[in-house]
Amino acid sequence: MRLTDDERRMRDGEQGEAVAAAMDLLIRYGEVLGAERLVDTDNVCGANIFGPRQMQLCGHAGPDAVFSEFSLDSPEPVEIPPMRAQSYQLIGPMDTQHWQVQGLSQEAHDAIEESESYSARHGIHLMNTCTPYQVGNVPVKGEHCAWMESSAVVYVNSVLGARTNVEGRESAAAAMLTGKIPYWGYHLAENRFGSHLVEVAEPVRDSLDWGLLGYYVGEQVQEGVPVLDGIAEVPNLVKLKHFGAAAASSGGVEMYHIPGTTVEARSVEEAFGPRRPLQTLRYGERERRLTYEQLNSTAQDTDVDLVMIGCPHATLSQIRDVCRLVEGRKVHPDSALWVFTPRAIRQVAEQNGYARILRDAGALLMSDTCPAIGQFLPKGTRVIATDSAKQVHYLPAIMKVQGWFGSTEECVQSALTGRWQGELR
């Protein structure tokens, strides 16, 4: 790998042991990937919030030791300096308001709070969300980033035209300390052209439809770059968020094109550039129904213990829509309704009265985490319902529950009645 003079100085320890360890990690990482050089980045999203388990594994040696071990892959603790790049914390393990609802101990709460404080002192912005583009981190077209979180990566690559691969905790932490990341994959213009053409023959209207389409496409193209042809209406942020998250869950999609909507494809021809489609797929009524049945294949019982909205984290408009469905009504005593959003959006929801409406209905507005990341559910939960194809893909496997997938309205109704009555319309 070719290094600049600045990069050699970092590698050789002129900026301290932590930066040297970070540069060593990036060089080894880049060489495995076949990268010929590094590229500058000033926009890094990672995950560096740790709890008592990590601290115990490090012998309670302090936060520098935990960061060294888990974020830098460094067997020896090094002193961690302030971050060089603009750095952001993604979704974490704890809701700072409702941590007791999660079932966390006081010890776990205190450890996570201290870890947050440590990150903040080192210049990591505590956004604590899987959708940082909703709350201020909106990279521009062509900007080189280093982001974790597959649903965020596919959004910024496709919708905004920024450039990032799906990074891991270690490579993201190393990028925070150095402002560098290997120049490969979706950082290169030639890798951003389409690979598969998807002819969309079925109307795609609401978030349920976009989740179904995304799940089908991801399963078919895996790590390819799908180009969607036949989309009649311009999708909004929520629909694109659901599509990308689903495609990144069933497959490994990190980028897609919707000609006339996403920024790097004014036409199908521009989306493919010099390439020809490897395959042409058709998404019609049959594919839609089979995908719906697949997403609901883990569920049999119709008594719903938990309804989860906000994967990826809910927008203010999604929270408003849930409020309109529950206002003046009550969540069934044998069920629960949890809505997850970024902390900054929860504050606006409080100001708008949305959080109060949810509380009055017996629901909770939560932030900073989600049941899959924090691995928590109400005690005794056997059946969940969600409007997220991503969440119904992961949560049954992670938490050993049954999962129903449907529209937001169907999910909220199941929380109010305690029973699932959704169907594909």
Automatic annotation (TrEMBL):
The residue ranges of the Phosphomevalonate dehydratase large subunit-like domain are 1-413
Q: Does the keyword Transit peptide apply?
A: no
| Any Pfam family | AcnX
**Alphabetical list of SUPFAM superfamilies matching this protein:** Aconitase iron-sulfur domain
Q: Which UniProt keywords apply?
A: Iron, Lyase
Which top-level group of life is the source organism from?
Bacteria
Name of the molecule in the record: Phosphomevalonate dehydratase large subunit-like domain-containing protein
